[in-house]
Amino acid sequence: MTHKDVLVVGFGIAGSSLAHQLEQLGKSFDIVSNNSQQATRVAGGVLNPIVLKRYKKVWMAKEFYASAVKFYSSIETKLKTTFIQQPNLFKLLQSPQDCNDFISATERSYISNFLTSIKSPSHPHLSNAVIKLGEVNHIYTLDLNTYLDESMKYFNDSFYLDNFNYNKLKIGNSSVSYQSKSYQYVIFCEGYGVIDNPFFNHLPIYGNKGEYLIIHSKDLNSNQSIYKSKYFLIPLGNDLYKFGANYQRHELNNEPTEAIRLELSKAFETMFSVDYQIVDQLAGVRPTVKDRRPILGEHEKYSQLFIFNGNGSRGVLASPYLAENMVQHIFYKQPILDDVDIKRYVV
Ligand SMILES: Cc1cc2nc3c(=O)[nH]c(=O)nc-3n(C[C@H](O)[C@H](O)[C@H](O)COP(=O)(O)OP(=O)(O)OC[C@H]3O[C@@H](n4cnc5c(N)ncnc54)[C@H](O)[C@@H]3O)c2cc1C
């Protein structure tokens, strides 16, 4: 029976960043993943450490952002591909109060690195209700499908496109076996698919569905800029844009809905008056936790089983830092960040 250090279950942003970190440490591993969850593939892929509604830092903003920028740049080089863009981001300001709030936020520590100044709108098709644009710099967007597809190809020899069968996991004293292989550890990264995991489905991980419209418009002519009102308009290139996403706690599946299509198209039309076509609509389920912190750590009974989940609405930003924390914990006994440690849910 062949033996490897780790079996990674799930290849979204959590599992993939873990795999890259494991490789960097010279650890041997296999990956099993299906396509039942789509959060990473559907995500906006915006690396943004600021909550643009309230102009506050997201939790661990500085650490997550620095780690993410370094990680994704290094993966681009490693995979010899391109999936990072650095567009301008403009927050739409619709009242003098909006403008004052933005200007005062430009003076806050750390936030001042991103929020720069306000300027008059120059887009010919932007709604008249927008009086100024708040400019936000140093925001990146990732083409997550390219990132995942190229990562899968890179790990081809150790990647199995399959449903993980929990009944086939045999847990020994110091290792586990699955199919015909043995592993020292299994790390579960199934996103919202965790609800089917008998070892970890007692954790308070809930789904929060989000949908995007994919819009084609020649008139929009905004291939270098993100616009943010309630929703984001994110350029994809070739006159295509993502517009969304909403948050919804029911119908937790990957099926787009007519109701959200109407809601998003109405919101788009209040932002821009242009000719456009909806060419696609995407949906995915964010794995969110009651206390809004991810969950990392080992199973209370089986010390070979670990979880890395609950990445919520900022998983693309947070995963590189957390994946490193996870592997440093497993192999070098570094502590897991208190706020994300699974121990907070051990009774
Ligand atoms: C609409 C939307 C927009 C978002 N925008 C952003 C953003 O702009 N910036 C940001 O930082 N975050 C964003 N997020 C959040 C981010 O996408 C998630 O936090 C992140 O993708 C979760 O990653 P994950 O790897 O934990 O889960 P997933 O991406 O769901 O990956 C889990 C993987 O495990 C597989 N799997 C599950 N069960 C099994 C099984 N039994 N056997 C085998 N494989 C299995 C799944 O098929 C999937 O491949 C967004 C999310 C959504 C839905």
From TrEMBL:
Gene3D superfamilies in the record: D-Amino Acid Oxidase, subunit A, domain 2 (3.30.9.10), FAD/NAD(P)-binding domain (3.50.50.60)
Name of this protein: Glycine/D-amino acid oxidase
Gene Ontology terms: cellular component: cytoplasm
Domain FAD dependent oxidoreductase intervals: 182-327
Keywords assigned: Oxidoreductase
Segments traversing the membrane: none
GO MF annotation: an example: oxidoreductase activity
Annotated source species: Psychroflexus salarius
Name of a matching Pfam family: DAO
